[in-house]
Automatic annotation (TrEMBL):
Residues 458-467, 642-663 have a biased composition (Basic and acidic residues). Residues 515-535 have a biased composition (Basic residues). This is FACT complex subunit SSRP1. It comes from Carassius auratus. Gene3D superfamilies: 2.30.29.150, High mobility group box domain, Pleckstrin-homology domain (PH domain)/Phosphotyrosine-binding domain (PTB), Structure-specific recognition protein (SSRP1). The gene is LOC113076237. Residues 543-611 bind DNA.
């Protein structure tokens, strides 16, 4: 038989929520480690007294009793594990694993029994449900009723607020109230904080960053009392997970961080960390409110009745002795500036990231603590605003991602060496030397990340370019219409004619009118509107463009995604497919890439055969002929119309038609009839220029 038995995905109920973890049975201890918080329960084998196997909602569970009065429950075992665990317990623990069935009748009357830290409600000597008394926050009594209230857990979707027990009157001892006796049994084991007695010591006006403000900290034997101007908090030492003492980057201040589970609450805000900020230069003399013998007996030399030193040292020393937890400090990491932390930004705030021996901690807004064992991989990414900085991304096994941005480039080498030494998975592992010596160091940082959408767009762009090269009929259709050249041609032609008319005018007032003429000419040219491009007709007989590797994989996997996720929408299918493609192995992707290359070759071969057979050329030649014929016909119409207008004006000899320039010059001029005649003659020349189309020279050459 093996020396140890290990089980993964074993669940422990904590205040209404299931936390998974790993359970290990060894010859000396039973150890359970919570995957979420990292908290470890260690039970010495010598203290085990009973063991029970039960059918529960999560399969099967084990209930363990110890000689110290504690009870531990672990669920999530399989039915086949019973025989293996039972034999191990008999051989190593000398304890028999007893099978016990739960009552599932649904009756609401029975017998309440207090078994250590549990209140068990039994029906016909079978437990219906059990209440951990350390989850009780308050107990109130009525005439024949006891109301039990519970601590709330933010991680649960549905929380049990209270349970009421009806206690019938009994004819027992006179003066003994059964309701009060029931309530006292609950309160003796409940986690109800009552500030009775004197505080061991008090620290006045300490600066607290979260929750923000200045608080008096009163140290009691079983809990910590934060007293501020607006809020009061009572924190049991049992809720303290870890203690951190972190030096500030300026080497003049210290952070003292207390990790809490469950967190303290202020309205809808939850504070999982209590962060105190101290100055290294601030000293204090402390006297404990206990006699020397009591201090020596209780703290075993860890504390003394009279102590003095730096304020942060006194606070951390007292907390370590009362909470009985180790204080975590930064390890051997040193940044580019010699500090044990890195300046960076998380979300919208700037703070400090501390690489520890077993994790990372960021202070202070919001505080984040990440253990190495819950980190899936890390990533070094290019900075979003400047190349003088980079981003450090951490992805957890639960799928959460934390991005610490705006880290100075000089810190890269130190941080890379630290992550590499801790054997963390680096998503985009590259050359560290290139990062140090090359300013363009982030050019290949994202090469390992596959963007399916980008690949598809690139593939379609290549195919579109090839299609444009093979069929340029659309480009030829717009070759004769060039607005820029046309405007220049009209301006030169008009200016040369206008100079002749200007030389025949002697009045100085007409100069101002001539200066306004170019604006009117531009307005006249703008009246010509370009013809709309005709939409290119698709040839149904042309071969279809090939699909990319991602699209080929998606078409083959779409039915499987639908079957695994019934009722999924089209957009959710695309999102799910993108995630699956990103997680696909390199060998699988190469297989689909090869299929895409084959499809591209097949498309090229089909396109060559299509062009050789004359496909796509007949339609474009007809379109060209039609467009050229339409242009020539339009030019002939415009030329004949201009000739008829000039002949009509010469024949009539009246002022029925006048150009815009003639009208403006006639209104502003005060010359004689002779001068008017000269102007009319000049305007006829101008009119002829306007009526002549811009491309008349081209039509003459044709």
């Amino acid at each position: 038989m093996n020396d140890t038995l290990e089980f993964s995905e074993i669940y422990q109920e904590v205040k209404g929520t299931w936390n998974d973890g790993r359970l290990r049975f060894s010859k000396q201890t039973v150890v359970y480690k919570n995957s979420k918080t990292g908290k470890v329960d260690s039970i010495p084998v010598s203290e085990l007294t009973q063991a029970q196997w039960r059918r529960v909602c999560l399969g099967h569970g084990i209930k363990l009793w110890t000689s110290t009065g504690n009870i531990y429950k672990y669920d999530g075992f399989k039915d086949t594990d019973l025989e293996k665990i039972s034999e191990y317990f008999k051989a190593n623990y000398k304890v028999e694993l007893v099978e016990k069935d739960m009552c599932v009748k649904g009756w609401n009357w029975g017998t309440a029994k207090f078994n250590g830290p549990l209140l068990s409600f039994e029906v016909n000597e079978s437990p219906a449900f059990e209440i951990p008394l350390n989850s009780v926050s308050q107990c109130a009594t009525g005439k024949n009723e006891v109301t039990v209230e519970f601590h709330q857990n933010d991680d649960t979707e549905v929380s049990l607020m209270e349970v009421r027990f009806y206690v019938p009157p009994t004819t027992g001892e006179e003066g003994a109230d059964p309701v009060e006796a029931f309530a006292q049994n609950i309160l003796s084991k409940a986690d109800v904080i009552q500030a009775t007695g004197d505080a061991v010591c008090i620290f006045r006006e300490l600066q607290c960053l979260t929750p923000r403000g200045r608080y008096d900290i009163r140290i009691y034997p079983t809990f910590l009392h934060l007293h501020g101007k607006t809020f009061d908090y009572k924190i049991p030492y049992t809720t303290v997970l870890r203690l951190f003492l972190l030096p500030h980057k300026d080497q003049r201040q210290m952070f003292f961080v207390i990790s809490l589970d469950p967190p303290i609450k202020q309205g809808q805000t939850r504070y999982h960390f209590l962060i105190l900020l101290f100055s290294k230069e601030e000293d204090i003399s402390l006297t404990l409110n206990m006699n020397e013998d009591e201090v020596e007996r209780r703290f075993e030399g860890k504390l003394h009745k009279n102590m003095s030193g730096s304020l942060y040292e006194m606070v951390s020393r007292v907390m370590k002795a009362l909470v009985n937890r180790k204080i975590t400090v930064p390890g051997n990491f040193q940044g580019h500036s010699g500090a044990q932390c890195i300046t960076c930004s998380y979300k919208a705030s700037s703070g400090l990231l501390y690489p520890l021996e077993r994790g990372f901690i960021y202070v202070h807004k919001p505080p984040v603590h990440l253990r190495f064992e819950e980190i899936a991989c890390v990533n070094f990414a290019r900075g979003t605003t400047t190349t003088r900085s980079f981003d450090f991304e951490i992805e957890t096994k639960q799928g959460n991602q934390y991005t610490f941005s705006s880290i100075e480039r000089e810190e890269y080498g130190k941080l890379f060496d630290f992550v590499n030494a801790k054997k963390l998975s680096i998503k985009n592992r590259g050359f560290k030397e290139g990062m140090k010596g090359n300013d363009n160091m982030y050019s290949d940082s994202d090469d390992d990340q596959h963007d399916a959408y980008l690949e598809r767009m690139k593939e379609e762009g290549k195919i579109r370019e090839e299609g444009n090269d093979s069929d340029d009929s659309e480009g030829e259709s717009d070759e004769s219409f060039n607005p820029g050249e046309e405007d220049d041609e009209i301006a030169e032609e008009y200016d040369s004619k206008a100079s002749a008319s200007e030389s025949s005018a002697d009045d100085g007032d007409s100069d101002g009118d001539r200066k306004k003429k170019p604006a009117k000419k531009a307005k006249f040219v703008k009246e010509r509107k370009p013809r709309k491009k005709e939409k290119k007709a698709k040839d149904s007989s042309a071969p279809k463009r090939p699909m990319s590797a991602y699209m080929l994989w998606l078409n083959s996997s779409r039915d499987r995604i639908k079957s695994e996720n019934p009722g999924i929408s089209i957009t959710e299918i695309s999102k799910k497919a993108g995630e699956m493609w990103k997680q696909l192995g390199k060998e699988k992707k190469e297989e689909w890439d090869a299929k895409a290359v084959e499809a591209k070759k097949e498309y090229d071969r089909a396109m060559r055969e299509y062009k050789e057979s004359g496909g796509g050329s007949s339609g474009s030649s007809k379109k060209e002929k039609k467009k050229k014929g339409g242009k020539n016909e339009e030019k002939r119409k415009r030329k004949s119309a201009g000739g008829r207008e000039k002949e009509k004006e010469r024949a009539t000899g009246n002022d029925s038609f006048k150009s815009r320039e003639f009208i403006s010059s006639e209104e502003s001029s005060s010359e004689s009839d002779k001068g008017k005649g000269r102007k009319r003659k000049g305007s006829d020349d101008e009119e002829e220029v306007v009526s002549t189309p811009p491309s008349s020279e081209e039509s003459g050459s044709d």
